Amino acid sequence: MEQTASTPPPATVRASGLSPYSKLAWGVLGYNLLVIVWGALVRATKSGAGCGGHWPLCNGDVLPEVTQMATVIEFTHRIMSGLALVSAVWLWWKARKAFGEGHAARRWAGWSVFFMITEALVGAGLVLWGLVAGDTSVARVYVLGIHLVNTFLLIACLALTAWWADGHAREATVGGRAALFAKIGLVVLTVVSAAGAITALGDTLFPSGSFAEGLRKDFVETAHFLVRLRVIHPALAVAGALYMMLLVWPEVRTQRSDRLFGLAVSISGGVLMQVALGMLNVMMAAPLEIQLAHLLLADLVWIASVLFVSERTA
User: Fold this and answer.
1) Is the distance from CB of 309 to CB of 186 less than 8 angstroms?
2) Could you give the C-alpha distances from 172 to 175, 177, 252, 256, 263, in angstroms and in order?
3) CA distances from 88 to 33, 121, 128, 189 (A)
4) Angle between helices 288-312 and 138-163 (to 10 degrees)
5) What is the pLDDT of residues 129-180, one digit of tens each?
6) Which of 16, 29, 40, 85 is the most exposed place for a label (fewest CB within 10 A)?
7) HEC sequence for the chain
8) Quick one: which of 92, 35, 40 has its CA closest to 286?
9) In this structure, is the dihedral angle defined by the CA atoms of residues 94, 99, 100 and 104, taken in order, positive or negative?
10) Would residue 171 show up in a list of annotated catalytic residues for this protein?
11) What are the structural domain ranges in the chain?
């Protein structure tokens, strides 16, 4: 296809490794993963109301008086989130300086800022509507799902910004039905992760002392809907894992492209580790450490899958 004056040719990969901008983009992505894990800590420790019903102020103050650990955890998350927004805007500004109009990295950096803003708005809604701490309403479940989808879109945009910052071309792309199945894989991961977020909320609000106790509660007809929904996630997770393994296996087997092979191996390995962590989480009645590790690995599998689909589809 002939290059036009308005569409600059892609830059070549630097022999010395990642460009300075790409390193910055990966750093911003890594920091946002830390913010996401800390946000899960806020939920798991029921600290979402640590700043009361105030936003963006904390208990009505810019610098709140610390009287409880929940305030420390929530206020720390707000500071981290504010810095994440600043970093996303800085990444976008640097992209405008580093790349011409129409460059993929510049486009994805712009979308990163958009989803960072919507992320902040959803977080504000959770606080202002009181959908935090011990709230067990259906509304919290819906907003939690929206929050999960927005978070996934945000880290996808940040990952694509970093991935295409050095301008390498796609290798071994496919179209048609194969491309459709690859994109469906992203939907599958999103649905599984949303179910996982709801399950984690149920584990937080209705904890069980043991695996046997939790299993009994799951099938009690009078149990809260968040408890009864917990059985859905494991079934979806197994089905989703099988789908992703089937999706990436052709690239593992044929090794058509080094980048695709590396991403496919990362996805398959991450999916297997996720299933193992999920089983351990259930058997140990959802300890905090495993919940956080499970979430972080889910985000890493999502990032690898987004990059895989971006590389593989035309």
Assistant:
1) yes
2) 10, 15, 13, 7, 13
3) 13, 15, 24, 24
4) 50
5) 999 989 999 999 999 999 999 999 999 999 999 999 987 666 667 777 888 9
6) 16
7) CCCCCCCCCCCCCCCCCCCHHHHHHHHHHHHHHHHHHHHHHHHHCCCCCCCCCCCCCECCECCCCCCCHHHHHHHHHHHHHHHHHHHHHHHHHHHHHHCCCCCHHHHHHHHHHHHHHHHHHHHHHHHHCCCCCCCCCHHHHHHHHHHHHHHHHHHHHHHHHHHCCCCCCCCCCECHHHHHHHHHHHHHHHHHHHHHHHHHHHHHHCCCCCHHHHHHHHCCCCCCHHHHHHHHHHHHHHHHHHHHHHHHHHHHHHCCCHHHHHHHHHHHHHHHHHHHHHHHHHHCCCCHHHHHHHHHHHHHHHHHHHHHHHHHEC
8) 40
9) negative
10) no
11) 20-167, 169-314
Catalytic annotation, pick one of 74, 119, 251, 311: 74
Per-residue pLDDT tens digits for 199-220:
999 999 998 888 888 888 888 8
How many whole angstroms separate alpha carbon 141 and alpha carbon 122? 13
> How is residue 124 written in tokens?
């504000």
